[in-house]
Amino acid sequence: MNILTIPLRTMRKKWLKTSLLFTVFTLSVVAIVSLNYVSREVGHSLEKKLTAFGANILVTPRSEKLTVSYGGFSLGDMLMGMTDLREADAEERILSIGYRDRISVVAPKLVSMTRVGDVAVGVVGVRFDRERVLKGYWSMQGDFPAAENGVLAGSKAAARLGLKVGDGFELAARPAVVSGILDPTGSDDDSVLFADLGFAQAAFGQEGKVSFVEVAALCAGCPIEDIVRQLEAKLPDTEIQAMQSIVKQRMYSVHFVEHLILTVSLVILFIACCMVGATMLSSVNERVREIGLLRSLGFSRAGIFGVFCFEAVLIGLAAGGVGYFGGYVLSVEVLRLLGMAQEAESAMHAGHLLLTCALIVGVSVLAAFFPSRKAASIEPSTALISL
């Protein structure tokens, strides 16, 4: 009989109470592990989906603006020292930064002015495959252009020009067809025409050039400031502007999910600790005579303390191992029900298993500390009086 065999004998003798405690602790571990995996995948998925609500970094050519006036009359603003922004070169440099894996969408744009009939209108050349990702909130009559001369019209621009889906018209002396009309967005998109970037570059004599580049970056894995610094190093002749309000709104959404899951996990862990502590305390009260006998046979206070702590270690170790595998299986099933199993990147790791077991063992020992200390403080004479 020693410190190792006594807990095993006691657990076997009181198998019902041990099984109940093991079940409660295991279910707690299953819930925590599954919540951790699900929250991580939901956070990643949420951030990627938020990309569809616009870019968060703007790359523009470096320039100086001069306001000109004479004799009290304003002559307008003049841009001086403005450099050309080449589409292919800018995109290549953007995708060469160290955090290129955090870049979700690179959307170059060419902005020009023209007249359709007698009405002046702005034309924005875009890559529609990327704009479809970047502007996932768009709704429209019709569809995205399939042909190079297809055009999307903003709601106000279409009304002002009298355009309907399927109408043909002249755009910068080239034939164009209205493929779709955007529903009102409440933004500048309502007042312009969107054309294919290659079509716009050719129509306005700006082959290979763009006015600015919108970048949608995933910011959970690194600060947005780091991405901006790397872009500035790669594009020294441009101005890089991070739209901090958009970044903060997105990160708030992602962090809210993570903090909610963390709070729920802590509550579950606290309840499990209370269960372990209450069960161990009840066990101490039931085994007063046994503790007195052990003390009279020469077991020290530290030995008695170790007996009860070792019981908690065995239960915590078993619950941590079984709970980890159960939690992973449950997380896979939850992600499947949420329709996210295909894009999920979670996988079981030996390191995660060891960390889970170590954490649960630590928590179980902590929960059993007070009952074990109470058991170690029982005097042999006090315990043996009742014999």
Record the SSE blueprint.
Elements lengths: L4 H9 L1 H36 L6 E5 L2 E7 L2 E8 L4 E2 H8 L8 E14 L2 E8 L1 H7 L5 E3 L7 E4 L1 H7 L6 E4 L2 E9 L9 E5 H7 L5 E2 L1 E6 L6 H11 L3 E5 L1 H43 L1 H9 L4 H37 L12 H27 L3 H5 L3
Parallel strand pairs: 6-11, 8-10
Antiparallel strand pairs: 1-13, 1-14, 2-3, 4-12, 5-6, 5-13, 7-10, 8-11, 9-10
Task: Please characterize this protein's 3D structure.
By secondary structure, the protein is an alpha+beta fold. 53% of the residues lie in helices and 21% in strands. It has twelve helices and 14 strands. The strands form three sheets. Strands 1, 5, 6, 7, 8, 9, 10, 11, 13 and 14 form a ten-stranded mixed β-sheet that branches. Strand 9 and strand 10 (174-182) form a beta hairpin. The model has no long low-confidence stretch (mean pLDDT 78).
Features:
single chain; 387 residues; alpha+beta; 10-stranded mixed sheet; two-stranded antiparallel sheet; 12 helices; 53% helix; elongated
Number of helical segments with 4 or more residues: 12
The overall average pLDDT, rounded, is 78
Q: Rg from C-alpha positions?
A: 34 Å
Determine the strand fraction and express it as a percent band.
15-25%
Helix proportion range: 40-55%
Summarize the entry for a quick read.
With 387 residues, the chain is of the alpha+beta class. The protein has helices at residues 5-13, 15-50, 87-94, 128-134, 155-161, 197-203, 224-234, 244-286, 288-296, 301-337, 350-376, 380-384; strands at 57-61, 64-70, 73-80, 85-86, 103-116, 119-126, 140-142, 150-153, 168-171, 174-182, 192-196, 209-210, 212-217, 238-242.
